[in-house]
Amino acid sequence: MANELTENIVWHHTTISKTDRQQRLGHKSCVVWFTGLSGAGKSTLANAVEQKLHQRGIHSYVLDGDNIRHGLNRGLGFDPEDRKENIRRIGEVAKLFVDAGVITLTAFISPFREDRELARSLVEAGEFVEVYVKCPLEECERRDPKGLYRKARSGEIGDFTGISSPYEEPVAPELVIESAEQSVEQSAEIILSYLQERGIIPLPVPHPLHKS
Protein backbone atom coordinates (compact mmCIF):
# COMPACT_ATOMS: atom_id res chain seq x y z
CA MET A 1 0.00 0.00 0.00
CA ALA A 2 2.80 2.45 0.92
CA ASN A 3 4.60 1.84 -2.40
CA GLU A 4 1.36 2.37 -4.35
CA LEU A 5 0.79 5.70 -2.60
CA THR A 6 4.38 6.80 -3.23
CA GLU A 7 4.03 6.10 -6.95
CA ASN A 8 1.12 8.55 -7.09
CA ILE A 9 3.03 11.41 -5.45
CA VAL A 10 4.15 13.99 -8.01
CA TRP A 11 6.30 17.08 -7.38
CA HIS A 12 4.28 20.19 -8.25
CA HIS A 13 6.30 23.12 -9.52
CA THR A 14 5.28 26.49 -8.12
CA THR A 15 4.33 29.46 -10.27
CA ILE A 16 6.85 31.69 -8.49
CA SER A 17 10.42 30.40 -8.72
CA LYS A 18 13.29 30.59 -6.27
CA THR A 19 14.93 33.15 -8.54
CA ASP A 20 11.78 35.27 -8.46
CA ARG A 21 11.80 35.23 -4.66
CA GLN A 22 15.49 36.05 -4.46
CA GLN A 23 15.07 39.00 -6.81
CA ARG A 24 12.19 40.35 -4.73
CA LEU A 25 14.19 40.00 -1.51
CA GLY A 26 17.36 41.48 -2.99
CA HIS A 27 19.74 38.66 -2.12
CA LYS A 28 20.40 35.00 -2.86
CA SER A 29 19.58 32.17 -0.46
CA CYS A 30 21.71 29.39 0.95
CA VAL A 31 22.24 27.06 3.88
CA VAL A 32 24.94 28.04 6.37
CA TRP A 33 25.49 24.72 8.11
CA PHE A 34 27.22 25.07 11.49
CA THR A 35 28.71 21.80 12.73
CA GLY A 36 30.87 21.03 15.76
CA LEU A 37 30.90 19.52 19.22
CA SER A 38 28.33 20.35 21.86
CA GLY A 39 29.44 23.56 23.55
CA ALA A 40 31.57 24.69 20.60
CA GLY A 41 29.38 27.77 20.12
CA LYS A 42 27.30 26.86 17.06
CA SER A 43 23.98 28.28 18.25
CA THR A 44 25.59 31.42 19.66
CA LEU A 45 27.37 32.09 16.39
CA ALA A 46 24.35 31.28 14.22
CA ASN A 47 22.25 33.78 16.15
CA ALA A 48 24.98 36.42 16.00
CA VAL A 49 25.15 36.04 12.23
CA GLU A 50 21.37 36.24 11.94
CA GLN A 51 21.31 39.43 14.00
CA LYS A 52 23.78 41.04 11.62
CA LEU A 53 21.83 39.85 8.59
CA HIS A 54 18.60 41.18 10.09
CA GLN A 55 20.17 44.57 10.72
CA ARG A 56 21.03 44.71 7.03
CA GLY A 57 17.55 43.72 5.89
CA ILE A 58 18.56 40.20 4.85
CA HIS A 59 15.88 37.54 5.29
CA SER A 60 17.19 34.66 7.39
CA TYR A 61 16.13 32.01 9.88
CA VAL A 62 17.97 29.88 12.45
CA LEU A 63 17.16 26.18 12.72
CA ASP A 64 18.53 25.18 16.12
CA GLY A 65 19.08 21.58 17.18
CA ASP A 66 17.28 21.79 20.52
CA ASN A 67 14.38 23.80 19.11
CA ILE A 68 13.77 21.33 16.28
CA ARG A 69 13.69 18.43 18.75
CA HIS A 70 10.88 20.19 20.61
CA GLY A 71 8.62 19.83 17.59
CA LEU A 72 9.46 18.43 14.17
CA ASN A 73 11.92 15.83 15.49
CA ARG A 74 10.42 15.33 18.95
CA GLY A 75 10.17 11.56 18.60
CA LEU A 76 13.79 10.98 17.59
CA GLY A 77 16.48 9.78 19.98
CA PHE A 78 20.26 9.99 19.77
CA ASP A 79 21.28 6.58 18.47
CA PRO A 80 23.05 6.61 15.07
CA GLU A 81 19.90 5.87 13.05
CA ASP A 82 17.82 8.56 14.74
CA ARG A 83 20.64 11.05 14.37
CA LYS A 84 20.80 10.26 10.68
CA GLU A 85 17.04 10.83 10.34
CA ASN A 86 17.31 14.04 12.39
CA ILE A 87 19.81 15.51 9.94
CA ARG A 88 17.93 14.21 6.89
CA ARG A 89 14.78 16.04 7.99
CA ILE A 90 16.71 19.22 8.73
CA GLY A 91 18.33 19.04 5.31
CA GLU A 92 14.90 18.78 3.69
CA VAL A 93 13.52 21.69 5.73
CA ALA A 94 16.59 23.81 4.92
CA LYS A 95 16.08 23.04 1.22
CA LEU A 96 12.53 24.44 1.43
CA PHE A 97 13.80 27.59 3.16
CA VAL A 98 16.39 28.08 0.41
CA ASP A 99 13.65 27.70 -2.19
CA ALA A 100 11.73 30.40 -0.31
CA GLY A 101 14.71 32.73 -0.77
CA VAL A 102 15.78 32.68 2.89
CA ILE A 103 19.33 32.36 4.19
CA THR A 104 19.04 29.39 6.54
CA LEU A 105 21.42 28.99 9.48
CA THR A 106 21.45 25.48 10.94
CA ALA A 107 23.11 24.75 14.29
CA PHE A 108 23.45 20.99 14.77
CA ILE A 109 26.28 18.80 15.96
CA SER A 110 25.69 16.67 12.84
CA PRO A 111 28.63 14.41 13.72
CA PHE A 112 28.72 12.21 10.61
CA ARG A 113 30.20 13.36 7.29
CA GLU A 114 27.83 11.21 5.27
CA ASP A 115 24.81 12.99 6.76
CA ARG A 116 26.27 16.44 6.16
CA GLU A 117 27.06 15.51 2.57
CA LEU A 118 23.48 14.34 2.12
CA ALA A 119 22.26 17.74 3.30
CA ARG A 120 24.67 19.41 0.87
CA SER A 121 23.38 17.31 -2.02
CA LEU A 122 19.82 18.56 -1.51
CA VAL A 123 20.62 22.09 -2.67
CA GLU A 124 22.37 23.48 -5.71
CA ALA A 125 26.11 23.99 -5.98
CA GLY A 126 27.18 27.07 -4.03
CA GLU A 127 24.09 27.04 -1.81
CA PHE A 128 25.63 25.01 1.03
CA VAL A 129 28.19 26.70 3.26
CA GLU A 130 29.63 24.29 5.80
CA VAL A 131 31.06 26.11 8.82
CA TYR A 132 33.11 23.95 11.13
CA VAL A 133 32.98 25.54 14.57
CA LYS A 134 36.17 23.97 15.83
CA CYS A 135 36.78 23.84 19.55
CA PRO A 136 38.95 21.48 21.61
CA LEU A 137 36.99 18.86 23.51
CA GLU A 138 38.61 20.06 26.75
CA GLU A 139 37.27 23.58 26.19
CA CYS A 140 33.79 22.31 25.32
CA GLU A 141 33.80 20.28 28.53
CA ARG A 142 34.98 23.30 30.51
CA ARG A 143 32.10 25.36 29.16
CA ASP A 144 29.52 22.55 29.37
CA PRO A 145 26.58 25.02 29.36
CA LYS A 146 23.96 22.27 29.74
CA GLY A 147 25.93 19.92 31.99
CA LEU A 148 25.83 17.28 29.27
CA TYR A 149 29.49 16.32 29.33
CA ARG A 150 29.31 15.73 33.07
CA LYS A 151 26.31 13.45 32.58
CA ALA A 152 28.01 11.67 29.69
CA ARG A 153 31.15 11.05 31.73
CA SER A 154 29.07 9.61 34.56
CA GLY A 155 27.15 7.33 32.21
CA GLU A 156 23.82 9.14 32.52
CA ILE A 157 23.84 9.92 28.80
CA GLY A 158 24.79 7.36 26.17
CA ASP A 159 25.85 7.92 22.55
CA PHE A 160 27.22 11.36 23.40
CA THR A 161 29.37 12.94 20.70
CA GLY A 162 33.00 13.30 21.68
CA ILE A 163 32.68 10.94 24.65
CA SER A 164 30.89 7.72 23.71
CA SER A 165 30.10 8.51 20.09
CA PRO A 166 32.48 9.82 17.40
CA TYR A 167 32.58 13.21 15.73
CA GLU A 168 33.83 13.13 12.15
CA GLU A 169 35.52 16.44 11.38
CA PRO A 170 34.68 18.07 8.03
CA VAL A 171 37.26 17.30 5.35
CA ALA A 172 36.84 20.45 3.26
CA PRO A 173 34.43 22.90 4.92
CA GLU A 174 33.91 26.30 3.35
CA LEU A 175 34.92 27.93 6.64
CA VAL A 176 36.63 26.90 9.87
CA ILE A 177 35.95 29.01 12.95
CA GLU A 178 38.29 28.51 15.92
CA SER A 179 35.76 29.41 18.60
CA ALA A 180 38.25 29.10 21.45
CA GLU A 181 40.45 31.72 19.82
CA GLN A 182 38.12 33.97 17.84
CA SER A 183 35.41 36.09 19.39
CA VAL A 184 31.78 35.72 18.35
CA GLU A 185 31.95 39.18 16.75
CA GLN A 186 35.05 38.30 14.73
CA SER A 187 33.58 34.96 13.69
CA ALA A 188 30.28 36.47 12.57
CA GLU A 189 32.12 39.05 10.45
CA ILE A 190 34.17 36.30 8.79
CA ILE A 191 30.96 34.53 7.77
CA LEU A 192 29.31 37.72 6.49
CA SER A 193 32.43 38.54 4.48
CA TYR A 194 32.30 35.07 2.92
CA LEU A 195 28.66 35.50 1.94
CA GLN A 196 29.48 38.89 0.39
CA GLU A 197 32.47 37.55 -1.53
CA ARG A 198 30.34 34.75 -2.98
CA GLY A 199 27.66 37.22 -4.06
CA ILE A 200 25.03 35.67 -1.81
CA ILE A 201 24.36 38.92 0.03
CA PRO A 202 25.07 42.45 -1.24
CA LEU A 203 27.74 44.69 0.17
CA PRO A 204 26.42 46.91 3.00
CA VAL A 205 25.11 50.27 1.91
CA PRO A 206 27.35 53.00 3.37
CA HIS A 207 25.68 55.57 5.56
CA PRO A 208 25.47 58.95 3.84
CA LEU A 209 27.81 61.56 5.28
CA HIS A 210 26.07 64.29 7.18
CA LYS A 211 27.16 67.72 6.02
CA SER A 212 27.63 70.33 8.69
What's a quick, concise take on this entry?
By secondary structure, the protein is an alpha/beta fold. α3 crosses α9 and α5 (80-99) packs parallel to α6. It has 9 helices and 5 strands, in the order ααβαβααβαβααβα.
Mind telling me the CATH class?
Alpha Beta
User: Any idea of the CATH topology?
Assistant: Rossmann fold
The chain-level mean pLDDT equals 90
Give the count of structural domains.
1
Structural class: alpha/beta
Order of helices and strands: HHEHEHHEHEHHEH
Q: Give the number of helices.
A: 9
The CATH architecture: 3-Layer(aba) Sandwich
The amount of helix comes to 40-55%
Described by the principal axes of the CA atoms, the overall outline is globular
Description:
It is a single chain. The chain has helices spanning 2-7, 18-25, 42-55, 65-69, 80-99, 113-121, 137-143, 148-153, 184-197; strands at 31-35, 60-64, 103-107, 128-134, 175-178. The protein has a single domain (19-197), classed as 3-Layer(aba) Sandwich (Rossmann fold), CATH 3.40.50. The protein has 212 residues and is of the alpha/beta class. Helices cover 42% and strands 12% of the residues. It contains 9 helices and 5 strands, in the order H-H-E-H-E-H-H-E-H-E-H-H-E-H. The longest helix has 20 residues, at 80-99. The protein is globular, with a radius of gyration of 19 Å. The N and C termini lie far apart (76 Å). A 5-stranded parallel β-sheet has the order 2-3-1-4-5, sandwiched between helices.
